[in-house]
């Protein structure tokens, strides 16, 4: 068995572990700091909406253009009077995007670009998007996101309980805010591909969260009938038992997305891949983080407020206190740095071991063999 498999097995059986729930205030603080940074980036820089949302035109030049991106951007802004975004694609062609122009204006811009770039105007491809159509796309994107969130909360409330649904909802808002904030800070364009990426990463985030919640639900059946573990300790064991699985699925998902982002978008220059790959890359990482460090500790906090869980904690602590002040106890199992209730063990045997009685058959015979 590999070292990773051995680690996963030991985590699953509670032999080792890290106390995520006990250190939840640290994770909450880190998440709040990242979220505030994302919100500030969104407020200061704002989102750069693509023409699909605000209308405009996209001009694509022939292949193997010798003009630099900066020069083409200057040409486009002079010809249109608007801000322009220029991307150099993998085949050497230029993708020039100008927002806020109509059909009549685009013809003049196309002719001017052909003159400045010294190419035939017929070889420049122009695609137009009306502002009304872009507004409809934006509204549908928000509607789709809202419906998705509503259905997720309803499902989790039915399948698990409202506290888990609330914790999952907070984790999803956390992931969306960070992803959108990164988009604002980086300056990437928001397109329909970005919305698709957001919806995709929300599914991945929920997958990791539901895996932990399912383990927690199984381990907390009839929890009040025992005095061995508190709810928070069982929640922590659930995180540790699914930790390796969550890490493996996240890494496997991040590798191809990293290829899209860094190789497809960066090396090959396929700018349209950046729209979806960045949202996937950031969202997958944020989703894995939130399912481990945010969602489950938040569920533990909410459950510990219940009178039944408070009573359980008192009984567990009282039993442990009796064990500490009574006779010598077996060595306790350490989980995440805290000493849990000792495992049941038979008392040690003191004194010489009793040897089994030897058989009398064969005594007195030289060979000791039976006849």
Q: What report would you give on this structure?
A:
This protein is α+β, with helices and mostly antiparallel strands and 371 residues long. The chain folds into two domains: 3-49 and 133-309, Multidrug efflux transporter AcrB transmembrane domain (Multidrug efflux transporter AcrB transmembrane fold, Up-down Bundle), CATH 1.20.1640.10; 56-129, Alpha-Beta Plaits, CATH 3.30.70. Helices cover 63% and strands 8% of the residues. It contains twelve helices and eight strands. A four-stranded antiparallel beta sheet has the order 3-4-2-5. A hairpin with a 5-residue loop joins strand 3 and strand 4. Helix 1 runs antiparallel to helix 9 (231-241) and helix 2 (24-45) packs antiparallel against helix 11. The protein is elongated and about 90 Å long. The protein starts with a helix and ends in a 32-residue tail after the last strand. The relative contact order is 0.13.
> Which CATH C-level class of the largest domain is it?
Mainly Alpha
Instruction: Give the count of helical stretches.
Output: 12
Biggest sheet overview: 4 strands, antiparallel
As a percent range, the share of helical residues equals 55-70%
Structural class: alpha+beta
Tell me the number of structural domains: 2
Q: How is the CATH topology of the largest domain named?
A: Multidrug efflux transporter AcrB transmembrane fold
| CATH H level, superfamily name of the largest domain | Multidrug efflux transporter AcrB transmembrane domain
- Rg, please? 32 Å
What is the CATH architecture annotation of the largest domain? Up-down Bundle
**Got a strand count?**
8
Strand order of the largest sheet: 3-4-2-5
Mean pLDDT comes to 77
Oligomeric category:
single chain
Uncertain ranges: 325-371
Dominant shape = elongated
Strand content: 5-15%
Compressed to H and E, one letter per element, the order equals HHEHEHEEHEHHEHHHHHEE
Distance between the amino and carboxyl termini: 52 Å
